[in-house]
Amino acid sequence: MNILDRFREHKVIGGLVDWERLEEIVKSEGIRLLDILGKGHRGVVFKGIYRDREVAIKVPRLDAKNTIYQEGCILKEVNALGIGPRLYTFSRDYLVMEYIDGITLKDYIISGDIDREGYLNIVKEVLKQCLRLDIHGIDHGEIQGGKHIVLKPPRVYLIDFGSAKIGRTPRNFTSAISLFFGKSHIARRSCEILNISEAERNHIIRFAKRYKEHLKN
Description:
By secondary structure, this protein is an alpha+beta fold. Helices cover 42% and strands 21% of the residues.
């Protein structure tokens, strides 16, 4: 049994993928599939080898709106800003990008002792990337939650631009502020690691509100 046949029988994604089209894609692009990385609201992601590089291959789910081409276009734009996994190739039916073998912020925040200086650099890098997206009018749409921020030292990646839009009011920076300094578990843990007082946290939130009002004007 080849790997595609094995994937077809997967109890979670077996009915979500156009397997004949995927077989055409891997043959035409010279991709070797290795594993299933997971599924999102609109796509299924595989791990593979493309031109001697480890990559992530995203294909649309059969039961959802196909936004693969739109995501590829946006990823191309954000790559030019130094953001996101490197895009290699894409079409309406697939997206081939750099495989980021890291840990999500959501998982990192609950791991052992975290160095304050190192974590401060992570927060600063996320905020800088979010500001860059805001300035260029690109809204990621899913910053809050931490699962689309991946740490692979020394780099910090924003991933999964499947819900991103160009044209709507960007909320990346304010979403990141809420993520780090709002009322979630990640925010509480962030304030603990960074030794942020309640007064300092409130000051940051007030600043974010002023920033949000500025975007509207």
